[in-house]
Each structure stands twice: as C-alpha cells, then as structure tokens.
Write a structure and sequence with these properties.
The complex is a heterotrimer of chains A (548), B (177) and C (238).
Chain A (H helix, E strand, L loop, with lengths): L2 H13 L4 E6 L2 H4 L3 H14 L6 E6 L11 E3 L4 E3 L7 H7 L9 E2 L4 H4 L17 H6 L4 H9 L2 H11 L11 H10 L6 E6 L8 H8 L1 H15 L3 E6 L4 H16 L15 E6 L9 H8 L23 E5 H13 L1 H5 L9 E8 L5 E6 L4 H8 L9 E6 L5 E4 L9 H6 L8 E6 L4 H15 L5 H18 L5 H17 L3 H5 L2 H15 L9 H14 L1
Parallel strand pairs in A: 1-2, 6-7, 6-9, 7-8, 10-14
Antiparallel strand pairs in A: 1-3, 3-4, 4-5, 10-11, 12-13, 12-14
Helix pairs in contact in A: 3-4, 7-11, 7-14, 8-9, 8-11, 10-12, 11-14, 18-19, 18-22, 19-20, 20-22
Chain B lengths: L2 H4 L5 H10 L2 H12 L7 H12 L4 H11 L3 H10 L11 E6 L2 H5 L2 H12 L12 E6 L11 E3 L2 E3 L4 H8 L8
Parallel strand pairs in B: 1-2
Antiparallel strand pairs in B: 1-3, 3-4
Helix pairs in contact in B: 2-5, 3-4, 4-5, 5-6, 8-9
Chain C lengths: L2 E6 L2 E6 L4 H7 L23 E4 L6 E2 L10 E3 L3 H17 L14 H8 L16 E2 L5 E4 L8 H10 L4 E4 L6 E4 L16 H5 L5 E3 L11 H13 L5
Parallel strand pairs in C: 1-5
Antiparallel strand pairs in C: 1-2, 3-4, 3-5, 6-7, 7-10, 8-9
Classes of the chains: A alpha/beta (548), B alpha+beta (177), C alpha+beta (238).
Chain lengths: 548, 177, 238
C-alpha cells in the first residue's frame, strides 16, 4: 500500500456514490428498536421502486438522537425521520417520488444538532462503519501516511503537545506529555493500549465511537504506536458491547488486508498489530493498572503507582494507555494541524468533548460540543430540559467517580478545571440529568452501592470503607441515622478518598461529598435526634422537670 | 514390589482428561487455546469461549483449562469469580438482564426489577427452580438513550415498564400467567 | 547501583537505588505499621497502613511499594496519618468477626498489636458481623474466615515460596475469600503440600495449627525469611 493506492480507493468510493443516500442508524440503541429490519425493508422498497441505481440505503453509525430511534435520514430532502418502523419503509421510499408521509420528522436545525461541533463524531451517522473504503473516502488513514512518511516520532509527540489534547477518559492528563514519557523510556518492547472499558453507568460515547467509526480509533492507535515506538496494541473492550467488538474485529481484519496494520505499513519500517481483549464485567478494569492485569489474564486488581505504566506497564514494559475518544481525536489533529485543534475550546481544555445525555431529559443521545460550553446550553437548549414540564434539579457527571452539579451552577462552562472546582469531574462524558423527583441521598446511596459491588477487595479503605459508608447512607435513608452518623460518614469520605489504592476508591466518595455539599438539607431532614447526644439528654431532662 | 506401589492413586490430571475425552466441545476449546498458543494471558479469552460452549463453568471445565494452560486451579478459580460475566452455576433456559445503570435507574429500572423478582419469585442473580429463567442485572449496557432497557435472551429492548416486562416474561415463568 | 540520598522524618539517609521507603525507614530505625507486608515475598500495597507523606506529592504513598528517589522528603508520622491508620484498623475490626478473647492468636496477633500501638481502643462503626465459615477439614491446619483480613500473605507464600499455588483469592470486594484449589475443603486439596508456610505467614488467627486453644497460637514468620534467604542467597544460617 502506498499513498496512490489509498487515494485510488477513495476516488473509487466517491465515484460510486449514488444521487440519493438514505441513512439508517445501525448503532446499538436503534438496533434494539429493530432498525435492522427497517434497513432491510428500505432496501427492498428501493429495489421494488426501481430506484436501485440512484438510491443507496446505507447502514451508518450513531445518528445521535437516540431517544427517537430508529432514525433514518434522506440527504436530498435534508430530512430526519424518527421512530421509523419496518412498515414505514415503503412510505419513506415513496417520498423520493413526491409522496407524503406521516412518519415523525425531526429537525436538523434544532439546537440539539445545530450547536454541535463534530471532530470525533464527524463520521458517525455518515459513513458505513463496516467498510474501510468508506473511512478512506472520508480522508481516513491520511494522517497515518503523513506521520509515517513525513514526520519523526518526536515531531508527532510535539504536535500532540501543541494541540493541547487532554485524556478523555476522565482525569484529563495531557496526552502529549504521556506520549513523550513513553517515547523517552528505553525499552525493546513497548505497548499501546486503548481503554474501551467504558464502565461508568450512563456513559455510551465510546461505544458509539467504536460502533460508528472504528477505523478512527485504529488509526489513532497506529499513530501513537509510531510516536512512542510500540509495535503491539491492545483494545480492551467490555463484553457488554458485542456490536462494538464485532465492528472492531471486522475493522482490524480489513486494515490488515489492505496493509494498514501489520508489517511495513505504507512501505515504511513501521510494524503494528492490534489485538482485542474482551473484558468480563469488572468496572475496576477501567483503572489502568487493573486493566493491564486483566490483559495479562489475571484478576483485575490495581497496583500502586508509581511506577506508572509509561515506565513499567504491561508485562513490565513501557505502555501507553489512552481511551477511545482520545485516540479518535488523533487523526483529525494530525490531518488539520495542532493549531486548528488548539483554537477550539478554552485556555486549558482544548478541542471538543462528546457527552452522553441521558436521564430525565427530553432529548437523550450523543452530543459533541466545544470545551467550555455552558452546562445550561447543553441540558436546556440542546437537551430540551426535563420532560413533561419538570424542573431540572441536578446534573450528574463522571459516573460513580463524579458528582452532582446543582441547577444553580448550570451556567458553569464545561471544562476539566471548572467541573473539578464544583466537586465533580469531567469523567468520560456521561451526563445524567435529574429532576425534582430524584432524592439526592438515594443517588449517593446508588453510587456507593455501585462502588461496594465493584470494589476489587484488595485495599482495606475501598473494600471495608465503602461498605461502611453504604451502611451509614442506608441508615440515614431509613431514618435511623443521627448527626453522629453523618459526621462519621464525612470522616470516612475523607479517609477513603486519601488512602485508597486506586482511582475507584479515591473517587468513590465523590457522589456523596457533592450531594452533601449542595443538598445537605436533604440529609439533615432524614436525621433522628441522637439518643446519646447533648440535645436529646437536655430535652429529656427538661420534660422530666416539667412533669415534676 | 511393595503392594502400595501397585495401587497408584489415579492422577487428577488423568481424571480430568478422561472426563474431557468423550465431549467434542473440549476439543473446540483446546483448539481455541492453541490459537492463543496456550499463553497464560489468554485465560480470560479461554473462559469466555468455555462459557460460550458450555453455558457455565463447572469444576471439571475449570480444571481442564488450568491443566491445559499450565496454571494452578486456584488461579483459574480466582479469575473466574472475579469477573461478573462468568457464571459457575447452570443458567436457566431464558435470561432476563435488567440494566441498573444510572440513566435506567433514574427512569425506574429498580421498579421493573422489583416487579420481575416478585412475579418470578427469585432474586436478581438467581434462576427459577424449573430452570426456565435466570434473572440478572447489569451495571449499564450503554443503551442509556432508550432507558430503561432490559435484555431478554440477548435482545436489548427499550423503554421498559413493570407491565411490559411482565408481559415479555409470559410463558417463561410457570406462574407468569 | 547508585546510592540515593533522601530525608525521612527529618533524618538524612542514603540507600541503594531500588530500595523502598519501607526498607530505608526500617534500616533507619523507624518502625512503620504494616499488615500486608511480609519479609520474603513481594509487596502488594493493600492494607494502606504504611502510607506516608512525600513532599510534592498530593497523594499518600504506600512505603512498601514506593521506590526511593534522590532528594525525596518523607514523613512517616503526622496527626493525619495516625488518624487514617486508626480508622483503617477500625474498619478491619468492624468488617469480620475479630473477638480477641476467644482467638487462638490472642497475644500473638499482628492486628491486635497494631491496634494497641496505634491507639485504636474502640471501634466506632457498626460491626457487620457476617457469617463466615471455618474450614477444619485439613489434618494439620484450620482456616477461620471470620478472622481473615485478606492481606493475601498466605497466597503469596504458597505461590512464591512453596510454589504449590494451592491458595488464591476468589470473588471480589467484601465478598472476597481465600480459597484452596477450586474452593474446595482444604482437606480435599490435592495440591497442598501441608508445608505450613501459610500458617506461619498469617498475621491473625485466621490460619492456625489444629489443637491450639485460645491464645496458644504463635506464628513463625522468621522461618519464611530463612527459607527465602536459604534458597535465593544460599545463606543457611538463620
């Protein structure tokens, strides 16, 4: 494979493009609402109408407005059809010849779509994720070629530093710095790992990227491997995402066939292979040292850092670990330039971020917005606020490691540092909206139960501390807790945060701490008078005196 | 020769291999291990395959894996019990997985689970005595846009309520009416 | 190996590269509380009792797994560390059923000794009083899961000193347990060599010699160090 071959594939693909394209969402959300049959019926209807030469029915990745699925769009009409049933297919094809339809029509001009800025999701909902030619026609693998033939590994790392990209997995560590550290570590063997163990409940951005544009992740990983000097990559994907795994396997096979993975890529001395490792249902494996233990076929228990994976990771070799969205950002950055990317977002958080909007909100689905977009714009304008006239009470970000941001703070711009200041975190991008019917103590209990369930059991603060905190939260919820219990809870939050071995334990108290910070009243309303406390004794004495 | 040496105790490894010899699925599993060059780090991949072939991981199966991958049995057991995806008990004919991810939770998936538990008379993680239904929970299946989601026999089904869920389970539970 | 100079509790010390903070502190005569650490086997950093403050780091680091570096400034004792250590011990006591008065290891127990030395005189949390079993099927030894603190020392000695791999941890979180082979009764284990190293290594009364009554059980940790030194350094005098 040389660049001419790549361009030839792209040209051939573009030349084969038909006049009209009907896109049918084939991501997991819509597929659960039978979009596969919708697509089959659309194909049949096109064939029956004799339009096969001018109309293409294309299965595409996520079209973002998941709550209205299955979604179908017709590009010549600039139309988005919602909740399409298999029976609607015939009617939709008839509209191509001027027919009318009663199928619900969405609005591409709604802020939900208009306010989005796509970098990672550019191809999502546009191209067929199961065909590498479609990705190549959308400038795919150009960045890899550019990097392999025209840049030194050092220049690639410099470009990443200049772009200001920060890890999209949650902690927001500068990507260029991480790559530089791995590149500098001397070792004959290095690894690149893509963390696709998207375990935060309420987050599905990575799933969508893998299902909609798997090649962008592969290309990003290959670029990273070249920059740090690795020849083997692993994608650690959770078993709960069978479709994403299927599409990744397919994508790797196609890339290997075309020589875009394997040895001597683009006739350079660079070799790179990628294997998929499938998780088995352990949230803690999203933590990088636990993930590596799992890749090695062991119990997914984390180990203390330092040493960091960049120095000693998989099988003791220097290892670069980034998440799906981070890798998907790499090809566009190298194609369009680090300056372009650095021009988007805020001073300290560059580029865009994909969020999964869900919970008590009208428009649930995927959105990609520039860093620094106010939370209010995301949930009220784009998300359409709480459904049925409800009132938004809080927005939960960062899953079990994050916190609840109260409605009063909705004007906060969404970037790493602002969210941290509010006691939450950016996290991987899950955004759950809660309305007035949600009890915040119950939310804290929900996340604590999650952490108890998912704690690996290795270190004492996380194993025994979360169990004790859950017990205290349940005691308070059952109206059996006292002010003393609340104090114990707060003390444990501080202790578990500071003494746990890994990120899971260190962030487990966050949902409790943030709800205590903003909704303390809800806790206090549940408290009972302390039978041993001074107040209660005082009252008892007073009433005794009164009877005397 | 001493009489004790004539009556050797059968070796555990021989016992396991004998057990495996009559079943074709063990051959398929071994081929899968060979694909991974019997490497230790393939343990989780191999357990996935074993569960896919046998439905659950019983002791003899775990011993077979341990023997072939040259790992201590305790290590294989430790890994198999660490990950929620693996089950050491036989599963029912049908499975119902209620998602308890945050998005599903705030939209009432706990009530769906309660309703199913009450009707099937089992708790999450259990199987009905007639082996018809296994009730499981998941910590987010990434289908938050269509919450609350329930997976019936591998098919993700959107926007469930206690009523629709019970409707779905008709015929799967003997007292399901 | 290059020597590194660092400060521990204000004392300037130097040690070889690759040493851990715990090694250096011990050499300097500073006694750090530890539970999961055991001379002779590798460290896992699980009990969080040996956490120390390192200047310039916003996180507390386990002394047993953190390697020293040039110019490091370590603090092994502070009001905050003492409080966290006490709380860790309280959590351990509340987690399973630790009743010293009826325990074989009473008076010879590391958990008990640490509670004394760290000033943990009572437990403020509700005891969870779980029902764990006792495995008395082995001819020589017993395992009382009620007294287990999941330090996994027994797992490490079984695997890395004896090489039998009989013991491991199963499950996860608070439900994690120490198992023999496929979670079968210890007495049925076909791999256990009955070497007794796990019993020597146990910090509490969870693993014990059969026939010991309350307060009789003494563990012999020095034997493990002896075996490791004998095997690795060919040093046969204890």
């Amino acid at each position: 494979m040389v660049i001419d071959d790549l361009n030839a594939i792209a040209e051939k693909e573009q030349a084969a493009r038909k006049k009209t394209v009907i896109r049918c969402c084939m991501a997991a959300g819509c597929m659960s609402s039978n979009s596969e049959t919708v697509k089959k019926n659309l194909e049949q209807a096109v064939k029956d109408a004799g339009l096969a030469d001018e109309v293409e029915v294309r299965g595409v990745g996520c079209m973002k407005l998941c709550c209205e699925g299955p979604l179908v769009s017709v590009d010549t009409q600039d139309a988005l059809y919602e909740k399409v049933t298999p029976e609607d297919a015939l009617e939709l094809v008839k509209t191509l010849k001027g027919g009318k339809t009663k199928v619900k029509r969405g609005d591409f001009n709604h802020p939900f779509f208009k306010k989005q800025l796509s970098i990672v999701l550019t191809n999502s909902g546009e191209i067929d994720p199961e065909r590498i030619e479609a990705y190549i026609a959308a400038d795919g693998y150009q960045a890899l070629h550019h990097v392999l033939r025209e840049l030194t590994p050092k220049e690639v790392v410099e470009a990443m530093v200049k772009s200001g990209l920060r890890g999209r997995g949650g902690a927001g560590f500068p990507t260029g710095l991480k790559w530089g550290t791995v590149a500098k570590t001397q070792s004959a063997q290095k690894y690149v790992i893509c963390n696709a163990d998207e375990g935060d409940p309420g987050a599905f951005m990575d799933r969508s990227v893998l299902e909609s544009d798997p090649h962008s992740v592969l290309e990003g990983m290959a670029v990273a491997a070249y920059a740090v000097g690795a020849n083997q990559g692993f994608i650690y994907c959770r078993a709960e995402y069978p479709l994403a795994i299927k599409r990744l396997q397919n994508a790797i096979k196609q890339a290997k066939t075309l020589g875009l993975l394997g040895s001597g890529i683009f006739e350079s001395p660079f070799n790179f292979n990628i294997d998929i490792r499938i998780g088995a249902g352990a949230f803690v494996c999203g933590e990088e040292t636990a993930l590596m233990a799992s890749v090695e076929g062991k119990r997914g228990t984390p180990r203390p850092r330092p040493p960091f994976p960049a120095e000693s990771g998989l099988w003791g070799c220097p290892t670069l670990i980034n998440n799906v969205e981070t890798f998907a950002n790499v090809p566009p950055i190298l194609r369009k330039g680090a300056e372009w990317f650095a021009g988007i977002g805020t001073e300290k958080s560059k580029g865009t971020k994909v969020f999964a909007l869900a919970g008590k909100i009208t428009n649930t689905g995927l959105i990609e917005v520039p860093m620094g977009t106010p939370l209010r714009q995301i949930v009220e304008e784009m998300g359409g606020g709480a459904p049925d006239g409800g009132k938004i009470k809080a927005v939960q970000t960062g899953g079990p490691s994050g916190g609840c941001i109260p409605a009063e703070a909705l004007d906060t711009p969404v970037d790493y540092d602002s969210l941290t200041k509010l006691g939450s975190i950016m996290g991987s991008g899950g955004m759950i909206v809660m309305d007035e019917t949600t009890r915040m103590v119950d939310v804290a209990r929900y996340f604590m139960e999650f952490c108890v369930d998912e704690s690996c059991g290795k270190c004492v603060p996380c194993r025994a501390g979360t169990a004790q905190m859950l017990h205290l939260l349940e005691k308070i919820l059952n109206r059996q807790g006292t002010a003393r219990d609340l104090a114990k809870l707060e003390e444990l939050c501080d202790m578990v945060k500071n003494t746990s071995l890994c990120g899971l334990g260190q962030t487990a108290p966050n949902p409790t701490l943030s709800t205590l910070r903003y909704f303390r009243k809800e806790y206090e309303e549940l408290l009972q008078p302390d039978p041993f406390g001074p107040g209660r004794n005082g009252e008892a004495k007073k009433s005794q005196l009164a009877t005397k | 020769m001493l009489p004790t040496l004539l009556h050797e105790k059968p070796k555990a490894a021989d016992r396991v291999m004998q057990h495996a010899s009559g079943d074709k699925r063990f051959k398929i599993l071994e081929a899968h291990m060979k694909k991974h060059q019997f490497k230790h780090d393939a343990l989780i991949e191999v357990l996935h395959k074993a569960q896919e072939l046998f439905g659950f991981l019983d002791d003899d199966l775990l011993l077979f894996v341990a023997y072939k991958l040259k790992l201590p049995a305790s290590r294989v057991y430790g890994v198999a019990t660490f990950y929620h995806f693996f089950t050491l008990k036989p599963q029912g004919k049908h499975t119902c997985v209620v998602c308890l991810g945050t998005a599903c939770y705030v939209k009432g998936s706990a009530r769906v689970l309660e309703a199913v538990e009450a009707r099937a008379k089992i708790k999450a993680g259990e199987t009905t005595p007639d082996n018809q239904l296994s009730l499981l929970t998941a910590r987010c299946i990434g289908a938050c846009g269509i919450a609350p989601a329930v997976v019936y026999d591998g098919t993700v089904t959107p926007r469930q309520t206690p009523e629709t869920a019970l409707e779905h389970l008709k015929g799967w539970i003997s007292n399901g009416n | 190996m290059a020597a590194k100079t660092l400060t521990i509790d204000g004392k300037e010390v130097s040690a070889e590269e690759g040493a851990t903070i715990l090694d250096v502190a011990t050499d300097a005569g500073i006694k750090l509380p530890t539970l999961c650490h055991l001379d002779g086997v590798y460290d896992v950093g699980a009990c969080s009792l040996c956490l120390v403050e390192v200047a310039g780091m916003n996180k507390l680091l386990p002394a047993c797994t953190t390697k020293i570096s040039e110019g490091m400034d370590v603090k092994t004792d502070s009001e905050r560390l003492r409080k966290y250590r006490r709380m860790t011990l309280e959590l351990l006591f509340a987690e399973r059923n630790h009743v010293c008065a009826v325990c074989v290891a009473n008076g010879h127990c590391e958990l008990q000794t640490l509670a004394y030395s760290q000033g943990m005189d009572h437990v403020r949390y509700d005891y969870s009083t779980p029902k764990w079993s006792v495995d008395a099927t082995h001819r020589l030894f017993g395992m009382d899961h009620n007294r287990c603190i999941l330090c996994a020392r027994c797992v490490r000695v079984c695997w890395h000193i004896e090489g039998a791999g009989t013991k491991n941890v199963s499950g996860r979180g608070a439900r994690a347990t120490i198992i023999t082979d496929l979670n079968q009764p210890w007495g049925d284990s076909e791999t256990c060599t009955a070497c007794g190293k796990c019993v020597m290594s146990c910090p509490t009364g969870a693993l014990f010699h059969k026939g010991s009554t309350a307060a009789e059980m003494e563990h012999d940790r020095d034997k493990l160090e002896f075996i490791v030194n004998a095997r690795e350094k060919k040093q046969w005098l204890p």
